[in-house]
Amino acid sequence: MTGVPTSVIAATGLVGGYAVARWTKKRPLGGVALAAAGAVAAKEWQRKAGNATAAALSGAYVAAFAASHPLAKKIGAWPSVCAVAGGVAAASWCVADRRKA
To answer: What is the model's pTM?
Structure first.
């Protein structure tokens, strides 16, 4: 996975988790996709930037997932998911991906 930026992994996990849950109508299956991508991203964050950064970005990933729910009531589900995915991707790129591995 070293060739794939963690920002892409994290954003894909948030968007993909929602897409899987929505299209299969099985929320736990979406949660599996979300968690799998989060685990891969966390491992890469730790490798690239250390434990503290991995913990902070993992917290941001979970917070983004949680924040997407109330935000969806205001702007819609897809815009909400895309907004939080973009935020996590930007944070991930800034603190982990632009560094040399």
So the answer is: 0.92
